[in-house]
Design brief:
By secondary structure, this protein is α/β, with parallel strands linked by helices. The protein has one domain: Rossmann fold, CATH 3.40.50.880. It has seven helices and eleven strands. The radius of gyration is 16 Å and the shape is globular.
Length: 236
Amino acid sequence: MTRVHVITGGPTYAHDFTGSEGTGTALATMIAEAGHDVLCTDDVEAGLLASGDADVVVINALRWRMLADRYRPWRDEWAYSPSAEARRAIFEFVRTGGGLIASHTAVICFDDWHEWGDLLGGSWVWEVSSHPAPQPVAARLSASHHPVLQGVSALELVDEVYGDLRIGDDVTVLATAQRYEGDDDQPVVWTHSLGAGRVVVDGFGHDAASLQSPEHRRLLLNAVAWCAHHREPVAS
């Protein structure tokens, strides 16, 4: 049985993570219903430190330093920077063969840790990246042969499209979408690798309805299966 840790949580002014209709709750429920052993936590620091106890870690959180004045009302409660130990734990987990799924706002997390973007193969760039409000989206599948897209014939949902992210040259883009008419195609789902580990970044997932749409659900469960390969020691 695959051990999956879902790390979730963040300010609720824009996203519901842990409520009955929250995205973290929805992810943990669907993964458990697929037969996996799931642990869900909103303690991001503890979750990162415990990465080594899982086969796959799913990060569905929105935690960063919140330095801009517009985030002042939430800063005392939600501002966060992972400790050196937590950074090392998740990095080594992936490097030695662990699977990592970054869901939606995960690309915005840990704004003072540049290597987080290197681990994911892409990240949010403050004052550059953007997204419109949730809207009907028809993503373009660009690598339909990939196991993560097995059985996914289309990806149509109501969601946000993140754009102008920092994307590495070594990612495999599985799907693209446009933020608005005439926009460049923006990578919204991709895979990346580090050492023996596998990473899937899913830019969709603003709410539970998006996650539970049949094609999106299939993609996410495929991602868990693809990421859950055996961890092997990697030379330092």
